[in-house]
Amino acid sequence: MNSNTNRHLQIKDPRQSKVLIDSSTRFLSDGCLVLRKGNDVISDIFSQLNRNDPSFSHCGIAFFERQQWMVYHSIGGEDNPNQKLRRDSFEKFVIPSDNTGFGICNLQLKKHEIGKLHHIVDSLFQQEIPFDMQFDLQSNDRLYCAEMVYKAIQQAVENDSLFTVTMHKGFSFVSTDNLFVNKQAQILCRINY
What we know:
By secondary structure, the chain is an alpha+beta fold. The protein is 28% helix and 25% strand.
């Protein structure tokens, strides 16, 4: 498969999931977005906040570290009782038992922007930034998943108008599709469990 081709795969047999997850890593590169949709009610609600594409409810940024792909992401709730920013293996991030599928998105960042982005997200991880239960874009001491990705990339890139922000009834927020539905983003693969 050509890495520039958008692949959409449906897994019918659960035994295939490990093989497809492993093979999907060839689409990863440092600074890629990894998107997923959880299989719970909260994930369904968050995916419905997307204006253009409700495929995903959660997101993170991938980097190759310690001989494996890791995903930096911010998550709250039962999955993360201490509410601090996480760095999980790609396999754990997209695990079929907790998700209905995932996607990998390239943002076409420059090499120096990717290096800066890695430094930013690792710094946020080291600071143990907690999850933002208020979903407040104005604060920086707490970050929800799409907010963390949005702010980290906005700090790292030269193009500060890469993403849009959604406004609803006077409330502004970043949803997952604000990150992957834009002219600089390219979904490289989608896997549905």
